[in-house]
């Protein structure tokens, strides 16, 4: 039998994933709005690449946790 806390945790996990994707979109948009190509490159190297790596790692971790939540024990 599936318990209510399992649904709540899955909902919050999916909500976290959606927020993570939105943050990644904001980060990429922020990089593209730099006024000069040199500033875009600087933002890419100093902000976007480390931030995107962190956000993608968190997204994958959330997916794994949701899958483990719903796996049979």
What would your notes on this structure say?
- The structure is a single chain.
- This protein has 73 residues and is mainly α.
- Helix content is 86%, strand content 0%.
- The protein contains 2 helices and no strands.
- 1% of the residues are buried.
Poorly predicted segments: none
Number of strands: 0
Percent of residues in helical segments?
over 70%
Biggest beta sheet summary:
none
Content-based structural category: mainly alpha
Mean pLDDT: 92
Topology:
Elements: H1 4-32, H2 37-70
In short:
This protein is mainly α and 73 residues long.
Task: Kindly list the characteristics that best describe this protein.
73 residues; mainly alpha; 0% strand; transmembrane helix; transmembrane
